[in-house]
């Protein structure tokens, strides 16, 4: 980082890659046209949007016309759940989601419940993974949608979405996955994994904030969330964020080109970090699966110090280190609320409030990991001396 801070919260958002910034700049200056306009400037913008759509769609094995640009993950998830619910309400009113979904999914489900839909929250095991076989017993003739995130934003645990998608396909139920955390980090194939709808966004993969997309399989009935001028084939009306969409495509291109190499590098750094924590701090324990998780993700607690997680976070911040206690969108610990994700895997309320989430990214180095460990060890010693 330019100010010498150590940024370890890439699950919340990533720094924009300079190469992405360079791709965006022309569309903030000379290429500022409205993509719906018929003149030369508008056509140039339209061509850039459609080129980006084709490029991103190809990476998930989708047709370009199946990809709709949105403002980000929250809008895409809202649209997927609400749009499917109201387009298919004559078939049934039952929706199944996992108990560890992002707040934007869970809060959308609460709203849908108030509007006549029935929601089932699928439990997870102690590693934070859904059991596809247990899913089957929750399915009813009224079930119209199953939504299970590909990778969890707090734990990084990866779900067996291909198997879940197959179960949904066999039962003639639509399947949606929130892939905001996993997209660009591990392979995704909407055909191979039996996905009907999928949420992705840019700011988790070194692209701009305020742009994302929803994949909707051809012929899947879905109601629009936004009505207006008929953009995005009449499915998502608003003036297109051309610069953001161009940056999104560039970010996707870079992630796809560097995916395997970056996954190996981040996995090595996390292993280095976990070993340091285990060897240097008594009482460290890890949350979620150690094997089935995204590269670069580590969620841990320190036994006996869970009540001091916010103090620990602030002391780290004073030392120039940015980490998180959970989802940035909910700031659970800061509000004195235990993480619903950690409670779902069996942690008690104190443990669920006292975890630290480390998520590494493209710009983190081994030297930063070593520095973080030294800083954390010293802070831990200070806190121990105060409270012992």
Distance between the termini: 36 Å
Q: Please name the CATH topology of the largest domain.
A: Aspartate Aminotransferase, domain 2
Q: Biggest sheet, in brief?
A: 7 strands, mixed
Question: Uncertain segments of ≥5 residues (pLDDT<50)?
Answer: none
From the spread of the alpha carbons, the general shape counts as: globular
The overall strand count is 12
Relative helix content: 25-40%
Please give the count of helices: 11
Q: Report the CATH architecture of the largest domain.
A: 3-Layer(aba) Sandwich
- Rg estimate, integer Å: 21 Å
Please explain how this structure is put together:
By secondary structure, the chain is α/β, with parallel strands linked by helices. It folds into 2 domains: 131 residues, Alpha-Beta Complex (Aspartate Aminotransferase, domain 1), CATH 3.90.1150.10; 236 residues, Type I PLP-dependent aspartate aminotransferase-like (Major domain) (Aspartate Aminotransferase, domain 2). Helix content is 38%, strand content 13%. The strands form 3 sheets. The chain has a 7-stranded mixed beta sheet with strand order 2-8-7-6-5-3-4, with helices on both faces. It has a 3-stranded antiparallel beta sheet with strand order 9-10-12, with helices on one face. Strand 5, helix 6 and strand 6 form a beta-alpha-beta unit. The radius of gyration is 21 Å and the shape is globular.
């Amino acid at each position: 980082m330019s100010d010498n801070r150590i940024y370890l919260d890439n699950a919340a958002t990533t720094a924009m890659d300079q190469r992405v910034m360079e791709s965006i700049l022309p569309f903030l200056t000379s290429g500022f046209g409205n993509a719906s306009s018929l003149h030369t400037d508008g056509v140039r913008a339209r061509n850039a949007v459609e080129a980006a759509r084709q490029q991103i769609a190809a990476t998930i094995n989708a047709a370009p016309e199946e990809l709709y640009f949105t403002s980000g993950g929250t809008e895409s998830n809202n649209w997927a759940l609400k749009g499917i619910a109201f387009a298919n309400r004559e078939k049934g009113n039952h929706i199944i989601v996992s108990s560890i979904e992002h707040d934007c999914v869970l809060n959308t489900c609460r709203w849908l419940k108030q509007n006549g839909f029935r929601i089932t929250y699928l439990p997870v095991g102690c590693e934070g993974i859904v059991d596809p076989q247990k899913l089957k017993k929750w399915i009813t003739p009224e079930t119209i949608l199953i939504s299970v995130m590909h990778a969890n934003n707090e734990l990084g645990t990866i779900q067996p979405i291909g198997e879940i998608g197959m179960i949904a396909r066999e039962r003639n139920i639509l399947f949606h996955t929130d892939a905001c955390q996993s997209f660009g980090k591990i392979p995704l194939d909407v055909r191979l994994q039996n996905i009907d709808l999928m949420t992705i966004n840019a700011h988790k993969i070194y692209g701009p904030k305020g742009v994302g997309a929803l994949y909707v399989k051809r012929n899947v009935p879905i109601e629009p969330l936004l009505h207006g001028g008929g953009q995005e084939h009449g499915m998502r009306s608003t003036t297109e964020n051309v610069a953001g969409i161009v940056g999104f495509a560039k970010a996707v291109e870079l992630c796809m080109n560097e995916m395997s190499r970056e996954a190996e590098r981040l996995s090595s750094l996390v292993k280095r970090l976990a070993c340091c924590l285990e060897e240097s701090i008594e009482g460290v324990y890890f949350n979620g699966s150690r094997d089935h998780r995204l590269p670069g993700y580590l969620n841990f607690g320190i036994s006996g110090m869970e009540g001091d997680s916010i103090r620990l976070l602030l002391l780290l911040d004073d030392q120039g280190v940015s980490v998180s206690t959970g989802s940035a969108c909910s700031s659970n610990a800061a509000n004195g609320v235990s993480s619903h994700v950690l409670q779902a895997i069996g942690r008690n309320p104190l443990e669920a409030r006292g975890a630290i989430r480390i998520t590494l990214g493209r710009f983190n180095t081994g030297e930063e990991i070593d520095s973080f460990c030294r800083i954390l060890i010293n802070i831990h010693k200070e806190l121990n001396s105060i409270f012992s």
